[in-house]
Amino acid sequence: MLRGYGKRCAGKASNFFLFSLIGLLVALSLGVYMWTNFNAIGSVSHQKQKVVIATNNEYAGSCAVMVAQEKGFFVNEGLVVSIKPVTSGKAAMAAILEKKADIGTVADIPVMFAGLSNAPISVIATIFAGERDHGIVGRRDKGIDTAASLKGKSIGVPLGTSAHFTLDAFLNRQKLLPDEVTKRTYKPEELANALAAGSVDAVAIWEPFLSAAMSKLGDNGVLFYGQDVYESIYNMVGMQNYISEHPETIKKIIRGLISGAKVCVENPAIAQEVVSKITKIEKETLKASWSSYRFDIVLDQGLILALEDEARWAIKNKLTDKVKVPNYLGYVYIDGLESISSSAVTIIH
Description:
Radius of gyration: 30 Å
Largest sheet: 6 strands, mixed
Number of helices: 14
CATH class of the largest domain: Alpha Beta
Mean pLDDT: 90
Structural class: alpha/beta
Low-confidence stretches: 5-10, 38-45
Helix content: 40-55%
Number of strands: 11
Number of domains: 3
Order of helices and strands: HEHHEHEHEEEHEHEHEEHHHHEHH
Distance between the termini: 92 Å
Shape: globular
CATH architecture of the largest domain: 3-Layer(aba) Sandwich
CATH superfamily of the largest domain: Periplasmic binding protein-like II
CATH topology of the largest domain: D-Maltodextrin-Binding Protein, domain 2
């Protein structure tokens, strides 16, 4: 009896060992599988989101973008940002609409025209405002020494841009009708040379092309700023479907911009060094005009009012076939900035 019992115990022990070995192998295999897949999932979740931003990297108004890129604020938010250089907000808007950029820096005038053409874009934030970055440079040897003497002169301007609006508003302030001057359209980067060559009597443009045009003429130039008639409102804009499909990416972009803008405001010397390196504008030139710039990341009711006023101008001057001012609230994405800084949103909605 004891000998049989011993055999049965030995058989049970052998089976127990076999089952334990199988269980151990299964557990190890499952562990390896879970570890491999956890790391794969983790690596995907930690991949940085790629974003293409079209911006005028020759314009100080892009300070928040430049600093966020140079100082790693976008990277800190988990973004890999590629900058697509453009020379105007109009060109940035074109890049967005053609899906060559995800987001772009765009002044208010291209946003206004986008609304009139029902383009599916939205402003996610205003990143800059300035009153002395637009103006008109005239040639003294063409008889231009006062604003009123622009009457009858040829003026180079990129049509359909903020410079065009500034010119018309400036002429209106001087009691001059738009057709009392001859407008000739040029690309922004062509204006300084056109003026220096005498192809036009004056040019209307923004910085840094404004200073470049004045520099070309030297003592033969006269400069009229447009601060009394126009304030530049520089915005971050994207396609509405991109924004709705990437709400968290939009928040990351906004947070990066807020960090960049903080440097532009609180550490101007550092910001000016970054902007000067990228734009090639002399630091002393930037320093002289910096106090007139506002680098707040906001959505202000003033944007809506400006867009409506500009739309009336475009309709009146038959720059569009539309006859009704759009509801520009439909072209602003509020949720992103409001979720980060509700006090930065003053648009009535």
